[in-house]
Amino acid sequence: MSLRRYRVTWTVRLAGGFFTLALLTTVVCERPKPPRLGYVDSAELLNKFERAVRVRAELQTTTGRWQAQVKLLEQELAGLRQRYIDESPAMSANQQKALRDQIVQREQDYTQVVQELNTKAARMEIEKMQPVYDEINTILREYGKRHGYDMILGATPAGNIVYADTASNLTDDILGAIARRQQSQRR
Question: Which residue from 22, 64, 81, 141 has the highest number of Cβ atoms inside 10 Å of its Cβ?
């Protein structure tokens, strides 16, 4: 092998080696950092967040009154049914039909009232709880940015997080941030 060919071969090898070294250095040094993740227990957050507890108690009070109204309608309907059972043998066919029609009408009224109240309760819950969710989400965003988190997940009883080390649980930290924010707003 000639000296010239030997130099070219080594020059190519060295250039290739330097290129490989430069590429590896770039890949290793430029490799993105792993994301910083955390999670909160959403149910615990809502159960311990004072404003959420207050709003849910208000919702329960209101829906409790509605449930009492529904209970009265159920009792009235049960009374009509029992009356039909007890008195229909002594009634004429026309009286029986009139009472059956009255029962059917009351059942329809009952169903309509229950549907309307359920819809009203769902709307009211969204209306009352949305500001609470918005406040929690704002605090989570601020906390995540301030502490360098790329993502904070919400764990629910339905199990959307299958496993997470408890060291990643930020629930108590977020509850502390909420408490500090409430104190500063009261001043």
Answer: 81
How far is the C-alpha of 128 from the C-alpha of 46, rounded, in Å?
Answer: 13
pLDDT per residue as tens digits for the range 142-176 = 998 999 888 888 888 777 775 677 788 888 999 99
Q: How far apart are CA 104 and CA 181, in angstroms?
A: 55
Residue type, 105: Q
Contact 40, 170 (CB under 8 A): yes
Name every residue whose Cβ is closer than 8 Å to that of residue 144 and which is 6 or more positions away in sequence. 38, 150, 151, 152
Q: Can you read off the two tokens belonging to residue 76?
A: 């009235």
Q: Determine the 3-state secondary structure of 155 from DSSP.
A: strand
Q: Which pTM does this prediction carry? A: 0.67
CB 118 within 8 A of CB 92: no
Report which of 23, 120, 27 is spatially closest to residue 67, judged by C-alpha positions: 120
Looking at the chain, how many residues does it have? Answer: 187
**Distance from CA of residue 178 to its chain's centroid?**
18
Show Cβ contacts of residue 56 under 8 Å, excluding neighbours closer than 6 positions.
46, 129
